[in-house]
Design goal:
The strands form 3 sheets. Strands 2, 4, 7, 9, 12 and 13 form a 6-stranded antiparallel beta sheet that branches. Strands 1-14-10-11 form a 4-stranded antiparallel beta sheet, with no helix packed on it. Strand 5 and strand 6 form a beta hairpin. It is globular and about 50 Å long. The chain is mainly beta. The chain has no helices and 14 strands. It has a domain of about 100 residues.
């Protein structure tokens, strides 16, 4: 049985630049991604109509109640699985076109910063997969909600999705795959450098979700990229 360590200090960044190989990957062949039971998306999981002051960072409370930004052990997953993070969404309680900046980490502990342009009460869907969130900051005051989406992060830079399974049963129609961003360096608005997948299966925290993907370890002209994709933008 394969074990996955849960103790991962916040200060540890396991991103490997230009990584060429991984023991669990056969290059050119399919790789199984085991997402597991993924919780239902929530529009208010992080902040629920939180009154924010412009340019003030709101720090989210980590699952285990430890708000120490250095020594928190990440013993519990946020945002409630899957293992590779998921994209977030923001919305205001009234008309607001401010810029909302979310800072946190991906599943490797790599710093990630994403900027959202608010569209009033209409949810704005993010493009980067967060595993943990540290703070939310808005350029304009207002009541803001921040939550999760069905868009899931991937463990490696992905070329294609070959199949999706729910509780071992193959899903006939694949979901939506967004290719990795190859912009170098990454910015606060570029897509996830490993790609994201929005499955057809309804996420309910019960069904075990998995998928087969094709990964690649290509490098760009500057020698950047690899299996973990380009380094995230983290401000």
């Amino acid at each position: 049985m394969k074990r996955t360590a849960k103790y991962t200090p916040r200060r540890l960044n396991r991103y490997v630049p230009a990584m060429a190989y991984s023991a669990d990957v056969i290059l050119g062949g399919p790789h199984e991604v085991r997402f597991g039971p993924v919780a239902l998306a929530s529009t208010t999981l992080l902040l629920n109509a939180q009154a924010v002051v412009a340019a003030t960072a709101y720090t989210t409370i980590l699952n285990d109640g430890n708000t120490d930004p250095v020594n928190d052990d990440y013993s519990e997953e946020f945002p409630h699985g899957p293992g590779f993070g998921r994209c977030l969404q923001i919305a205001f309680g009234a008309a607001n076109a401010g810029i909302v900046t979310i800072s946190g980490r991906d599943y490797l502990g790599q710093p990630v910063t994403e900027s959202f342009t608010a569209n009033g009460t209409t949810p704005v869907i993010g493009v980067k997969a967060f595993k943990w969130v540290d703070s939310v900051t808005s350029t304009l005051a207002g009541d803001i909600s921040v939550g999760t989406t069905d868009k899931l992060g991937l463990p490696y830079a992905t070329q294609n999705i070959l199949g999706e399974q729910a509780d071992g049963a193959r899903v006939a129609t694949l979901g939506t795959f967004v290719s990795p961003s190859y912009t170098d360096p990454q910015t606060a608005t570029t897509a996830d450098p490993r790609g994201t997948y929005d499955p057809t299966t309804t996420l309910d925290g019960v069904k075990f979700l998995s998928a087969e993907i094709i990964v690649h370890n290509a490098l760009n002209a500057d020698g950047n990229g690899g299996l973990y994709g380009l380094a995230h933008y983290g401000a």
